[in-house]
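Progress report, Aim 2. The chain analyzed during this reporting quarter is listed below.
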Amino acid sequence: MKALIIDSAVTKLTISAKNDDKSTSSIFDIGMRQSEILLPAIDYVLSKCGMTSDQLDYMAVTQGPGSFTGLRLAYSALKAIECAFNIPIYGISSLLIHSYPYLDSDYFVLSCIDANKDRFYAHILKKDKEILPDGDYTLEELKEKVSNLDKLLICGPDREKLYSLLKDDFKGKEIKYPKFNILTSETLAYLAEEKIKNKEAPLEDYQGPVYLRASEAEIVLKQKEAENNK
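Predicted structure tokens for the chain:
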């Protein structure tokens, strides 16, 4: 299958193209400058795979949680291609793309993204069982949730940070994290093609990123509205 895949949930941006058994990926770990390189990078990976946008069978994107700006940028770019050429888009949980490769293990798998303000976007899965759904959790909430687990694997872009915060509360039990990052676009493509195989519907026109927290702009607006209503 021919596909365009984007993981823009965190500041490390991954863009890949897949042309049957050939693929090209570009990774940009450049902080909050995704808008500068997103469109040129899409053109680059497609051209290296010998494709144009109108030849795609599907597109896949991280659906959230994650960076407000990064998610919006990727959705905007893919929605433009969808509108122009009627290419379906499949959204995948940003946390699932990190936990999925480890779900065959005997560990409880905690996938995490640093949400700042002493909070983490996280979920916990054990094989096909959801222990903790995608959410915006405090460190204390996560500590309480993992306190009764015997074997814990922490994955995701901020796994090392969360490991350092949890390890002292997990003494006498097994806790670890992968030392290296996976190429998330490969998992995105696999999960999207599973959706296609199972005849699951792609994203509707009105569907956008999944945000688990209000943006700073929304928080400020609500504060001003509350002050005005006093």
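The mean pLDDT is 92. Residues 18 and 201 are 21 Å apart (CA to CA). These observations will guide the mutagenesis work planned for the next reporting period.
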